[in-house]
Amino acid sequence: IQAPHAMGLLLRIFAWAFELPILGQIFLKKRNKILRHTVIPEQPMFRPEFPQEPEPGTVVLDEDDKPAARVELALNCLRPYDPFLYWTIRDYAHAYRSTPSIVVEHVISAVEDPPMSLLVSFNASDLRKQAAASTKRFEEGQPLSFLDGIFIAIKDDIDCYPYPTKGGSTWFHTVRPTKDDAVCVSRLRSCGAILVGKANMHEMGLGTTGNNPNNGTTRNPHSVERYTGGSSSGCAALVSSGICQAAIGTDAGGSVRIPSALCGVVGLKTTYGRNNMKGCICECGTVEVVSPIAATVEDVMLVYAAMLGSSPSDRISLHPLPYL
User: Amidase domain: from which residue to which, for each copy (predicted)?
Assistant: First the structure.
């Protein structure tokens, strides 16, 4: 490209000249072939194709199955339930199979009381409504899945209707209104998960501390004088504090893995193309993915089984192998 190096006033003059019909078209755009005759007939291949046979003993999850059916398959892959090892989703599920409406009051109290800046959007009335519906399903013996009644938080850059998606900012929701759940959130909702609200995050995800000047900085539950890490700071803190059994964050350069490590929980950066990104601020990116955070590996496995499934465009361009 033959163009001058410019900054300050010179750059402003260059930008003005670049937009002029004659000078810009003849001497700059045409000469440098900027955006002329650009044709991209198909999406790029992000992953090379190679033969791969499933390992013996693996269970293949079909992304066309219903989320609840995939959760059941994943549940059958876990070792026998032992309530004395550590707290997992199975511990919570067995402990209150018919009492989400009782547990929700403790969750609301925990979220409203400590000044830890965990949630940026939260509605106690809606939370009680979800818990009541879950309790009724248990009383009727018709839970939607093993995740029914499990409390899950959603990062503030993922749509969770009717909460606004602000991305940790004070303005983004005004230019991008939330009209529906993100695909990953709708799959969790179809499994009966109780969506607690929108978790705090580093503003626009552009940082690794979780320090947010707009909503307050999320504190690390293990030491309130320390950072959680970011950008999925609220998600990791909610799981680490035991308020939520899982959370959904986003990760490009460590936004799930960093806070998970600092808070002592498990964060998985899913493979690109494995999850549908529709309904996320970063849905058009080529690095960012939606990813689960939970207390243990087996909990991440259950939540991931519910939310997985690539978008139609990724199925064409990536040809992903079966979920194992």
Answer: 117-319
The residue whose two tokens read 């899982």 is 246
The model's pLDDT over 50-103, given as tens digits with 9 standing for 90+, comes to 566 777 888 888 888 999 999 999 999 998 888 766 688 999 888 877 789 999
Structure tokens at 187: 């799959």
Q: CATH number of the domain that 81 lies in? A: 3.90.1300.10
Domain range for residue 86?
67-318
Tally of domains within the chain: 1
Q: Is residue 4 part of a domain?
A: no
- With respect to residue 12, please indicate whether it lies within any of the assigned structural domains: no
Three-state DSSP class for residue 131: helix
The helix/strand/coil state of 225 is strand
User: Helices 100-112 and 124-139 sit at what angle, rounded to 10 degrees?
Assistant: 160
Q: Cis link prior to 241 (omega < 30° from 0)?
A: no
pLDDT for 250-287, tens place per residue? 999 999 999 999 999 999 999 888 899 999 998 866 78
C-alpha 36/C-alpha 232 separation (Å) is 40
**From 1-10, 33-42, 137-146, the region with the lowest mean pLDDT:** 33-42
Q: How many helices (H) and strands (E) does the chain have?
A: 13, 8
Helical ranges in the chain per DSSP H: 8-19, 21-23, 30-32, 67-76, 89-95, 100-112, 124-139, 172-175, 183-190, 233-240, 257-263, 297-307, 312-318
In a domain, 160, yes or no: yes
Antiparallel, parallel or unpaired: β 194-199 and 151-155 = parallel
pTM given for the model: 0.82
pLDDT classification of 25: cutoffs 50, 70, 90 = low
**Could you tell me how far CA 323 lies from the centroid of its own chain?**
19
Mean pLDDT, range 202-211, rounded to an integer: 94
* Residues noted as catalytic: 155, 231, 255
Residue 1 in any domain: the answer is no
